[in-house]
Amino acid sequence: NNKLCDILVINETKLCPLVDDSHFENNNYQAYRRDRPNGKGGGIMVYVKKNINHYNVTLHKVIEMISLTFEPIPGKKKVSLLACYRPPHYENEDLFFKELELEVLKADRESSETIIAGDCNYNMLESKNKLGDFAYDHGFNNTIKKGTRLNPKTMISTLIDVIFCYCIRDLVSSEVFSCPFSDHSLAVAVFDYKKATFKSEGVPKRYLGEKRVDEINH
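Above: the chain sequence. Below: its structure as tokens.
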């Protein structure tokens, strides 16, 4: 109600289609749900502030993902959001990355920036993992740098909730806050898409056309 964020991504809602949307309506935000059919675990919800122009909202059937396109600068800049959840010990790991890659390639054709946000259950504090390799191969930067979940048994903090982006220059700040109703922390990233973009200086050149080449040869 305080409208503190423009877009909110929630993982592991554990809702089923029998739960009516009216429980989650808000006057300031448009809500989108991607439930598991049986409501056992998983589930994604995305809230988008109503004054933000957005479209192409897709609830994916193969993996747990909600994708959409929004315009932080109406008519000038498009950003694709891929809100996803990958459960731990997921048997179809290769399928997850295959579908994620397809969505990234689709987003690249439609937008100038792509954000991947969610709990993918890979510890980004480790030097090597499949999600880190995926991010590196596609040019993504992880804006979250601190642990997002404290294992109650080992008391070791892991960074498994990520917010990826291409252009790190648009990032103003990021932070991790404790959450009173979850064993995960809240991962927050602030972007400023209205900053002046870097423009390279033009270099004057002469065009050596076919006519000039003939003149030189003669």
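The first strand starts at residue 7 and ends at 11.
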